[in-house]
Design goal:
This protein is α/β, with parallel strands linked by helices. The chain folds into two domains: 24-164 and 176-294, 3-Layer(aba) Sandwich (Aldehyde Dehydrogenase, Chain A, domain 1), CATH 3.40.605; 300-452, 3-Layer(aba) Sandwich (Aldehyde Dehydrogenase, Chain A, domain 2), CATH 3.40.309. It has helices spanning 24-37, 78-95, 100-114, 121-130, 134-161, 193-205, 219-232, 246-254, 268-280, 309-321, 341-352, 373-387, 421-424, 442-452, and strands spanning 41-43, 45-47, 50-52, 57-62, 65-74, 183-187, 209-213, 239-241, 259-265, 290-294, 300-302, 333-337, 392-396, 400-401, 407-408, 411-415, 431-437. The strands form five sheets. It has a five-stranded parallel beta sheet with strand order 8-7-6-9-10, sandwiched between helices. A five-stranded mixed beta sheet has the order 11-12-17-16-13, with helices on both faces. A hairpin with a 2-residue loop joins strand 4 (57-62) and strand 5 (65-74). Helix 1 (24-37) packs across helix 4, helix 2 crosses helix 8 and helix 3 (100-114) packs antiparallel against helix 5. The mean pLDDT is 97.
Length: 454
């Protein structure tokens, strides 16, 4: 019995550690990286709290040293997926009735575990398996993930507090939030460890049960997140961990009548196909699935001729090349007025030349490797096309090397065609395309920006 009104502590954004020379967090992280590099692990499925091994294995390689294998993971097939659905539905009956304060306490505990700075497993795993530099890792798998855990609990409390303020005599109007009657399918990306944790966590916080399929290129860090869920006290069956091929897992999950929600981050094409499938088969579900997705884009910068050139140059460099451009928020196309281009070009090229590329274990490297061979081949195909196209000129980078890791130089394409291919298509890599416009044609240029890419 609880005779108290529980109040979630008001969250604050998690401070970003510096990892400066001699700092304890740097020493702890360096040590944990070496420990993880020295071992190969085997990652099982986690279904209903049980470790399940299928024997159908996938590799977990280091992108910046692709001959280094971190371990192998078992991939879910039809039998395991159906087992996971059964386990989630079994857990639903109790988890959906668990008081929200008890659910929030579990995820608050998880945040407190991550706040122990000497515990650097998730940061080390992210740097190794996703090739992120130390700063990009710290703001992702540490700070943002902790913020998701803490702020989600706060926002859940705010949601539950929204109650009717008036009741007629003899009545008490109350609003109850019910969990979805089925399971949520969480499909998570490789590029943000925090999102990989948040997509299964947030529906679970609200009393839902989850099937979680992480990106195949980020199973390694997802495995350690799943360990944290279990360590914090998430009951068996509430979050079921089913790595595997999207073409195998997706169709089986999507056609199950108990599908009650999709929580997705990834490509626009994949999400549209999922939405389309649900719409066409809506009569087959027990309820109407809630569909939530965040997908890619073709982010732009348009500079006015009054822009501060130094600020513009830094925004272009960091926006385009942080984490090798592998963000849906990465700057991918820029519109620069002809009147300031000479100054912008000189300062921009000089700044890009200062970028260091290499192993994230060297904390002075700003850029690291792209995620895998498929990404490397796709990105470099755009660069190769630009090298032979009369409408394109490469003004920085253009070189690449996958002999050791999947390294691509920060590449900038200057085009005379505002509808050139790299102005329109999402590349998801370290490639920025620039188009020069006449500042006297400002309004039409704004229209051009809006019409060039969805």
């Amino acid at each position: 019995m609880q005779n108290a009104k529980a109040i979630v502590p008001k969250p604050l954004n998690e401070p970003i550690l510096s990892y400066a020379p001699g700092s304890p967090e740097k020493a702890a992280l360096k040590k944990r990286i070496e420990e993880l590099k020295s071992q190969e692990i085997e990652v099982p499925l986690i279904i209903g709290g049980q470790e399940i091994k299928t024997g159908n294995m996938g590799e977990m390689r280091v992108p910046h040293n692709h001959q280094h294998i971190l371990g192998y993971y078992h991939q879910a097939g039809e039998k395991e997926i159906k087992l996971a659905i059964e386990a989630s539905m079994d857990a639903w009956s109790s988890w959906s009735k668990t008081p929200w304060e008890a659910r929030a306490a579990i995820f608050k505990k998880m945040a407190s575990i991550l706040q122990r700075h000497e515990e650097q497993t998730l940061n080390a795993a992210t740097m190794l398996s996703q090739s992120k530099n130390v700063y990009q890792t710290e703001i992702d798998s540490a700070c943002e993930f902790i913020d998701f855990l803490n702020f989600n609990c706060w926002y859940a409390q705010e949601l539950y507090e929204q109650q009717p303020t008036y009741s007629p005599d003899g009545m008490w109007n109350r609003l109850e939030h019910r969990s979805l009657e089925g399971f949520v399918f969480a499909v998570t990306p490789f590029n943000f460890t925090s999102i990989a944790g948040n997509l299964p966590m947030s529906p679970a916080l609200m009393g839902n049960v989850v099937l979680w399929k992480p990106a195949s290129s980020a199973v390694y860090s997802a495995h350690f997140i799943m360990n944290l869920f279990r360590k914090a006290g998430v009951p068996d069956g509430v979050i079921n961990f089913i790595p595997g091929s999207g073409s195998t897992v997706g169709p089986i999950v999507m056609k199950d009548e108990n599908l009650a929600g999709v929580h997705f981050t990834g490509s626009t094409k994949v999400f549209q196909s999922m939405w389309s499938y649900i719409g066409k088969n809506i009569k087959d579900y027990k309820t109407y699935p809630r569909i939530v997705g965040e997908t890619g884009g073709k982010d732009f910068c348009i500079a006015h001729e009054s822009a501060n050139v130094d600020a513009l140059v830094t925004a272009m460099t960091r926006g385009a090349f942080e984490y090798q451009g592998q963000k849906c928020s990465a700057l991918s196309r820029a519109y620069i007025p002809t009147t300031i281009w000479d100054e912008v070009k000189e300062k921009y090229i000089a700044q890009v030349k200062t970028i260091k590329i290499g192993d994230p274990d060297d904390f002075t490297n700003f850029m690291n490797a792209v995620i895998d061979k498929a990404a490397f081949d796709t990105i470099t195909s755009y660069i190769n096309d630009a090298k032979t196209d009369d409408n394109a000129e490469i003004i920085t980078g253009g070189n690449y090397d996958d002999s050791i890791g999947y390294f691509i130089e920060p590449t900038t394409i200057l085009t005379s065609d505002p509808k050139y291919r790299t102005m329109c298509e999402e590349i998801f890599g370290p490639v920025l395309t620039i188009y020069l416009y006449d500042p006297n044609d400002w309004k039409n240029t704004l229209k051009l920006v809006d019409e060039t890419s969805p």
